[in-house]
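Hi there,

I know you've been waiting on this one. I reran it after we fixed the sequence typo, so this is the corrected version. Both the input and the resulting structure follow.
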Amino acid sequence: METLTINERTYKIKFIPFEDKCGLKEDGTYDIAYSGHNIDIQFNDEIFDGKIYEESKYKISFFSNPYPFFGEDIEMIKKYFQEEHGVQEFYFLDIDSDEGYVKF
């Protein structure tokens, strides 16, 4: 677990490895296999979730809009992921958008 303090707010960040597989073939291989890290960012009792896939490890996708959770800390959060984990692209799932994930 990593800890990040911004503007007197302390975030606890967990990277949890995952592997998703589907479509088991007779030869023991899969049609589709994904791996990467689920990300839990905790502040007080709230948890904000995201995911980084191994195939696109320079891109992070959050499952909801990050602005209400991070507020004015959003740019420092982005800077942390850029500098510490090489993330270059940031997306969040916008259920009201036709695109699904929106870059921010």
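Quick highlight: DSSP finds two helices and seven strands in the chain.

Best,
R. S.
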